[in-house]
Design a protein that fits this description.
- By secondary structure, the protein is α/β, with parallel strands linked by helices.
- It folds into 2 domains: 166 residues, no CATH class; 141 residues, 3-Layer(aba) Sandwich (Rossmann fold), CATH 3.40.50.
- The chain has 8 helices and 16 strands.
- The strands form 2 sheets. Strands 1, 2, 3, 4, 5, 6, 7, 8 and 9 form a 9-stranded mixed β-sheet that branches. Strands 10, 11, 12, 13, 14, 15 and 16 form a 7-stranded mixed β-sheet that branches.
- β3 and β4 form a beta hairpin.
- α2 packs parallel to α3.
- It is globular, with a radius of gyration of 21 Å.
């Protein structure tokens, strides 16, 4: 049986999903599996889809995928598919909105229950912390199931979400993140209201003139925060307490999901890379949003270092681009 959270159907007993797992070269990040999924209705294949790396193979890089085994394992019980097939689960943003968010949505729909199994890749410590925190908030015990390489699984009851292929900013998911922050915050007031999120510990998209940025923004009453030095819980509390957030584009802004009251977000982009994910997230909140696009050290390279235009940033802080209301 397969239940698609995006198109929930009454005749779900006639659906099922089969998943083949393939190897691919390990020089593509650190993962080495690819999922090929078939959705069947009364044994007729309705849809077959795979992940990002299969698409790459169709763009001139050659077919490098290889089926590793004909082993088939039948899995009984209830499973929830929370893997992110684009392998971005090592990224805080993609893990939050493409693995955790569907779990919250399924719980809201009363489709997750005690002792259900969650299909998910091996997790880093911060991901385990967030997963544990979410389960504690939902008051539910979920068992983690990590697929093996080279094995085909025939799952009796499997729920999956189309949001594993793109970020999930569903209204009830955003409400859940806000409820988590409120539940954690209690009466804590130890966190600053004006924060600048540094990327000093990041390997990519570093800010060349960050000392100059910090000097300017500190004079305006902002505290410099390094998310990598905080626990998941403290990150949530920090953003819940914040009123004004300034940050280079990066996964740290994921925590905007936990803000509750009116906030102002100023995002600094490189001219090589300015995705709209956080303005989309802000559009679901009571939020004022601004952005600056800045000169990169290497044109056309998305992860190049870049220099923040100080005057442009000061102007953005004074003249926000747009104001959102979640009730609009």
């Amino acid at each position: 049986m397969i239940i698609n959270l995006y198109n929930y159907k009454n005749d779900i007993n006639k659906y099922r999903v089969e998943t083949d797992i393939f190897e691919y070269p390990k020089f593509y990040r650190k993962h080495n599996v690819l999922l090929l999924n078939r959705i069947l209705y009364e044994d007729e294949i309705l849809e077959e889809y795979s992940d990002f790396y299969h698409d790459i193979s169709n763009k001139g890089n050659g077919i490098y995928l290889k089926k590793t085994s004909d082993k088939i394992y039948s899995l009984n019980g209830n499973y929830f598919f929370a893997m992110n097939p684009y392998t971005f689960t090592t990224n805080y943003f993609h893990f939050t909105f493409q693995s955790i968010a569907p779990i919250l949505l399924a719980f809201k729909m009363n489709l997750l229950h005690q002792s259900d199994k969650v299909i998910i890749d091996s997790m880093f410590s911060f991901q385990k912390d967030l997963f544990t925190l979410i389960c504690k908030f939902l008051n539910i015990q979920l068992e983690i199931f990590t697929p093996q390489n080279g094995v085909v699984y025939n799952i009796e009851n499997c729920i999956f979400s189309e949001f594993m292929f793109r970020p999930n900013f569903h209204r009830c998911v955003i409400d859940s993140f806000e409820d988590i922050a409120i539940d954690l915050l209690s009466k804590s007031n130890k966190f600053p209201q004006n924060i600048y999120i540094t990327r000093k510990d990041s390997r990519i998209r570093k800010i060349i003139n960050e000392d100059e940025v910090i000097s300017m923004i500190s004079k305006k009453g902002y505290r410099v925060i390094n998310n990598s030095h905080l626990s998941i819980k403290d990150q949530i509390l920090l953003y819940k307490s914040a009123k004004n957030i300034v940050a280079p584009h990066g996964a740290g802004l994921t925590n905007i999901a936990y803000t509750v009251e009116n906030i102002t977000v100023t995002e600094c982009f490189s001219e090589n890379r300015y995705p709209n994910v956080y303005i989309n997230l802000c559009s679901k909140k009571d939020c004022t949003y601004s952005a600056t696009v800045n000169k990169a050290s290497r044109l056309g390279y998305p992860d190049a270092t870049y220099t923040i235009d100080i005057k442009l940033l000061e102007r953005a802080l004074e003249e926000p681009i747009c104001k959102f209301s979640k009730n609009a």
